[in-house]
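Objective 1b. Sequence-to-structure analysis of PqqD family peptide modification chaperone.
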Amino acid sequence: MRGLLVRPAGVTILLAFEDDNPQLWVDTQRAWAALAPEVIEDAGARIADGERVTVLSSRPADEITQQWGDIANLTVVNSSDPAVAAERLTVDVTLHLLREYAGTAHLLHAAVVGDASSHRALALVAPSGTGKTTAARFLGEHVTYLTDETAVVMPDRSIRPYPKPLSIIEDAQQPKVQHNPADLGLRVIAADDYSFHLHRIVVLNRVKGKKVVPSIEPLPLAEALLTISEQSSGLMITERGLEVLTGLLVETGGAVKLTYSEITDALPLILSLLYQDQDQLPESEAAFTYLPAANFLVNSDTPDLYQRSEGSTGLVCQDRYLVAQGNSLSEVSIYAWDCWEMLAQPLPKTEIHARLQELYGPIPERGFEESLLQLEQAGLLLPVVASPL
């Protein structure tokens, strides 16, 4: 069984080709050439020692996982259809990378391009299917290409390059075709070059169906957080993740929104952002207050006791109130924020009602009960379970 070792963003992954499929083997080597894959002639002997492994096989996935059940980070790609397998392999490699860095790095759903002279980099954030790969493909012909999909930004703002294949639609009825970015004429960075640093975060706003003049506008901090958090991985398992992401935005001058129809028309604006010195960046609205997660009670003897949702954190900026809980970040009203904020320690329902009346004046019991229920249904507040007798 032959294999390839690839190291996206410094993460070593063994790709084991169980079947003798010359087309898939050659296509994979070509598509992933930017990562300088290492050929392993006896991949079967290396699987048991691999920390992250993807097996490409026509056998059922459960057979593979049973055979190599001791490997925690094992994925299986069905290799029966080479085109489908090639597309799926790109997804699996990306998932391996995300799992490796989740909680320790900023993982943005973004293309990244940089300037080879200053080693500044821009992260171009956008949801899937809205133009990141198209932007990366064009911009990578003019500046350095680091990735079209996943930005791995370390705490010191250095970038771990991920020059993955570009997944391009060539036939809407067929899987995306995987292309080595260098074969498309992009200025591809070496996979082990960690010298680029994040200079600015750009939120892409591609307008389809009509021609618009490209423009750049600063995003308010709260809006930037709401937008970028949706395009982040591992944010909620990162220690003080909301605070850390806010700090990154402030350090880089705040996010901007690039509105355009065709990325070719926006090149001058991209270059202007890339070449701006740090002291030329507009001052970010840096004032914010972060509230970390509170202690969480499993049960208590106190009746009608309420607490914050487990692990939830909050942030106030520009008179806007954000609460992160589970895998999401939401904007809440000042009333909801006041309820959530006062529960740094669990409080009885009567105490919550009394404190709210100090802030807002008389609140009818029925209205208070209804609002409390709404906050509970929204997952902001939780009743503490009574201790078993």
